[in-house]
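Table 4 source record.
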Amino acid sequence: MSIHEECGVFGIFSENPLNAAHTAYYGLFALQHRGQESCGITVNDDGVFTSHKDVGLVADVFGKEILDSFPEGTMAVAHTRYSTTGTANRNNCQPIEVNHLKGKMALAHNGNISNAAKLREELELSGAIFHSSSDTEIIAYLVTKERLKTPSIEDAVFNAVSMLDGAFSLIFMSAQKLICVRDPNGFRPLCYGKTRGGAYIVASESCALNAVGAEFIRDVEPGEIITFSKNGISSRRDLCEKKPISHCIFEYIYFARPDSVLDGVPVQRARVKAGEILAKSCPVSADTVIGVPDSGLDAALGFSSASGIPYGIGLIKNKYIGRTFISPDDRTDRVRIKLAAVEEAVRGKRVVLIDDSIVRGTTSGQIVSLLRHAGAKEIHMRISSPPFLHPCYYGTDIDSTENLIACKYSPEEICRLIGADSLGYLPVNSLCELVNGENFCSACFDGRYPTEIPENTKKDRFERHLSEC
């Protein structure tokens, strides 16, 4: 079992028509790591929306023929998804589009609405009919409902997001405006920049700005609502500083791409720092340090630098396996196809193996077995995060403690279960050193939630509505 994040969002605003679909396509490629279940693009050509979305990777969903079928436009919103609420099917693909009395709207969402069940029940009792099991459709309904009684979409968005709890980085597109919103806690990242041609780009991570030739301007502040229109850029800050800033610490440990900078902190630097802390808090005598590709590599470099133990490439990842790959029934075979041990690098050596997390423990045990089979003399596993002990309600795919091995066993027991010679985790009290401050959420590690805990947190909590229709 791997930890997944919900999605990546991408938006474009330009005063002049451009090939918005192609730009969005490149942006989604840069954000593919944030979601691999489905993706979609909606282009705005003078108020006419053209969309394509489907289940699959960006390269599978958008071929040249489909991209070329899009018209030029002044705006676009795009999305790549991994589901934390709702299953992987076409009904849950984004962007979500709405046609209503006052016009059109498209919406892309990254995060997880913790009071979604309550809001959906209220909407259904008022007559709303839902077509998906995603909490994003709830946001679309709220904005549409507010738009019918407000003078502008900005007011409608403000009224709607004021009702939401939890994590939401949002991009809305109307006929004339592009609006981006970040929740008051700032759980999920969101930033914007500008291309040389004058187009504004909004994206989950700065790596997507780089991919389309946009220069980073700044992060969207927690609680901020920014509107891009022909009248320029405006910012509404009524919701700013209303709640404690709680950036997700696991964005820095695992989710984000290492070349991104989130809220002023380079992701790669945070991961290298985690490795350095591990070397000091969980020292061991060894011959080589190796990382599990890809998110364990930077922490392995940090561990090597701080410990003086040479860094090596001991595991190779097959880069050509996508989600369409037909996996064998045996989990061990699946790991061996995706990862290969470099025997020359580990044979007869005491190995420090760095990974970003242990969730269920199955994969960790298989990787240890791979290295044993390749001739490693000792394997000392070090994890660049603390143990997962609590559910996450803000977009990380941990909706219960049922599959968390650290909830059932002690570190010593886990070490024996995965077959390692020793096991060490990043100390939870050292997380602040990764981001140079205290403004982060680490509830999945320490249980200190920055918002009220919702009653129903299951990923499939809305599936019954679809099956009963």
